């Protein structure tokens, strides 16, 4: 069952917000929100936690070489990555 992009974006956002414990800022996060360098909570350890949470939530496998600055640039780029991994 494929989710439409808006639903997938919301689901990835939920994983991000829960993993980083930033629910107080969830309303201000959208597809264009910059992640790396913009969210102080998203350090190298948090990236690993986020990857693990995304793998569990979406049943995907993320390789080390997949974890790039481009993938984690914005919520939209992260959602696109998850969508590609699911297909």
Provide an overview of this structure.
InterPro entries: ACP-like_sf, PP-bd_ACP. It comes from Actinoplanes sandaracinus. The longest helix is centred in the N-terminal third of the chain and has 16 residues, at 5-20. Helix content is 49%, strand content 0%. It has 87 residues and is mainly alpha-helical. The protein is built from three helices and no strands.
Brief summary:
It holds the Pfam family PP-binding. The chain is mainly α and 87 residues long.
Shape: globular
Q: Which regions contain 5 or more consecutive residues with pLDDT less than 50?
A: none
Helix content: 40-55%
Describe the main β-sheet briefly.
none
Return the structural class: mainly alpha
Q: Give the CATH level 1 class.
A: Mainly Alpha
> Could you give the distance between the termini?
11 Å
Pfam family, one: PP-binding
Organism: Actinoplanes sandaracinus
Protein name: Phosphopantetheine-binding protein
Domain Carrier: 6-86
Which structural traits does this protein have?
Phosphopantetheine-binding protein; 87 residues; mainly alpha; PP-bd_ACP; single chain; Non-ribosomal Peptide Synthetase Peptidyl Carrier Protein, Chain A; ACP-like_sf
List the topology elements.
Blueprint: H1 5-20, H2 44-58, H3 75-86
Helix pairs in contact: 1-2, 1-3
